[in-house]
Amino acid sequence: xxxxxIGIVGFGQMGSGIAQVTAAAxxxxxxxxxxxxxxxxGLKGIEKLLDKAIExxxxxxxxxxxxxxxxxxxxxxxxxxDCDLVIEAVTENLEVKIPIFKAxxxxxxxxxxxxxxxxxxxxxxxxxxxSRRSRFVGLHFFNPVPVMKLVEVVHTVMTDDAAFKDAIAxxxxxxxxxxRAKDSCGFVVNLLLVPYLIDAIRWYENGLATKEExxxxxxxxxxxxxxxxxxxxxxxxxxxxxxxxxxxxxFRQPHYAAPPLLKRMVKAGYLGRKSGRGFxxxxxx
Length: 285
Ligand code: 3HC
Hints:
Oligomer: single chain
Strand content: 5-15%
Distance between the termini: 44 Å
Largest sheet: 8 strands, mixed
CATH architecture of the largest domain: 3-Layer(aba) Sandwich
Bound molecules: 3-hydroxybutanoyl-coenzyme A
Number of strands: 8
Structural class: alpha/beta
């Protein structure tokens, strides 16, 4: 692997986290968003995290300058043309992702490896839309990216060994531990995590215990950092509902289906931390 320049499409929570760890590892990063204000928001978020780390004595002003100095931003996909690897982290919707990959396929040099950070969509569905099916992988990071150690590196039946090895080497070079997975819905983590979260919502809806009790049970009984309802708020209720729906579509098993309470809360706009309210109220924080 001789990657120098990494493109990141989508500079939201996941994209900016990926950009931060990639830039910190010494790569040049080109981050692309549709609008300039989203690029500025992503950069401000990274700056804030680096300032916090400096305050805690866990980073220096030089570290901050290095990370920010390695990140450039653009609204044009063509500016990613000479990247060695492009990681897509946009909305979880094939109708959004596929046109981006098609445009990147035209713009980027033939050797560029493409990766999607999708949590549950099929890597194969995206790869077949490009002329580089054998150099297309999944690179699934976890939120918050700077903290979570894991990256799932996903291969399809078309991925060639060299591209897969390069993707693994890249993930390790940004300080992550790799779990390799086949292109199967939810890979490893979400396949196991999402039905657990959905089950917790179902049992909460059934009146098993209060939300605090359910969360404390899993935190204190299993040493999880967050209980399932807290974690659903953290990830986003809409995201969990959406992943559950994709899994239900794929496997046709009822335990993946969103419970009525989850659907109603999403409809009401209670999406978790990002909207100020989910199972808990974050409006005053
Ligand atoms: N970005 C970067 N760093 C963050 C952060 C963020 N959003 N939130 C917290 N941190 C850092 C803090 O700066 C702190 O760093 P330090 O140890 O170097 O000082 C460290 O994380 C601990 O933070 P706090 O002390 O503020 O808070 P907690 O101890 O409560 O930890 C947490 C917060 C790390 C989010 C912890 O609660 C946790 O691990 N929760 C579970 C998260 C999880 O399961 N994520 C996976 C979700 S699934 C997923 O992403 C897949 C997707 O496809 C759905």
